[in-house]
Design brief:
Structural class of chain A: alpha+beta
Helix content of chain A: 10-25%
Number of strands of chain A: 8
Number of domains of chain B: 1
Order of helices and strands of chain B: HHHH
Radius of gyration of chain A: 13 Å
Number of helices of chain A: 2
Order of helices and strands of chain A: EEEHEEEEEH
Oligomer: heterodimer
Structural class of chain B: mainly alpha
Number of strands of chain B: 0
Distance between the termini of chain A: 29 Å
Chain lengths: 99, 138
């Protein structure tokens, strides 16, 4: 059992019924559901698609592709898909309206 | 499946309006009235195909370029459904199918261009906000 500081976590990802926390080099299984984490860490993490919560501080840049798909490239080079329906919340958080 | 259902409903309305317009054009030009069931079956199949193409195009998994190309390939059979539904009154010459294919390709290309431009702007805004946010932290 490990205790992780939220600032060290890049993102949470749900795969089937398991949730994983991704740090710079490691992956940890988390004993919470994604919606519970979203509720507990709403000031630090933001949902960007139905399976992922990201720490906006770890985002290096945003990119789009030909079919309008948006991706966030993290500091550790991981790429996460951003669903269109969460873009508004992401903008609000980056503007500091939600944090 | 839920996403496909939503797309299907929107496309269903648009396809019905287009079919209604085409049926009116044929009626004005050739005094031919189509059976409702024939138009309805054509519209349902066309909607299923076009809806599937749009769903593929908007899919957030896989390679986006391949999804976009597959979207166009998937749309093509709907032209044959259109020809079967309206017959020779609308497609007087066989080569018209190829013209329609090119026309559909142009519309599809334009739609892709509009979507990519719109989201490019969205991404630029996000990058600006991100840079502002990071410079504030430093």
């Amino acid at each position: 059992m490990y205790t992780l500081a939220p600032r060290d976590i890049f993102y949470f990802d749900a795969l089937d019924h398991d949730v994983f926390a991704y740090t710079k080099d490691d992956v940890y299984e988390v004993n919470y559901k994604l919606y519970q984490l979203e509720d507990m860490l709403k000031d630090v993490f933001l949902r960007i698609n139905k399976n992922t919560l990201v720490n906006p501080k770890m985002i290096k840049s945003f990119q789009s592709s030909i079919n309008g798909r948006m991706e966030a490239e993290l500091i550790n080079k991981d790429r996460l898909v951003i669903s269109r329906m969460y873009v508004k919340d992401l903008k609000a958080m980056l503007r500091g309206e939600k944090a | 499946m839920k996403d496909y259902g939503k797309i299907y409903l929107k496309v269903y309305i648009i396809i019905h309006l287009i079919f209604l317009l085409l049926a009116l054009i044929v009626y004005r030009r050739a005094q031919v009235t189509y059976a409702f069931i024939r138009l309805e079956i054509g519209a349902v199949i066309t909607t299923a195909i076009v809806g599937f193409a749009l769903w593929l195009f908007r899919l957030e998994k896989g390679n986006s370029l391949i999804n976009t190309i597959l979207g166009y390939i998937v749309i093509i059979p709907s032209i044959f459904v259109l020809r079967n539904t309206f017959g020779q009154y609308l497609f007087r010459f066989t080569w018209l199918i190829y013209v329609v294919m090119v026309f559909v390709g142009i519309i599809y290309g334009f739609a892709v261009w509009v979507v990519s431009k719109k989201y490019k702007k969205e991404v630029d805004d996000l990058n600006k906000l991100l840079n502002k946010d990071q410079s504030k932290d430093q």
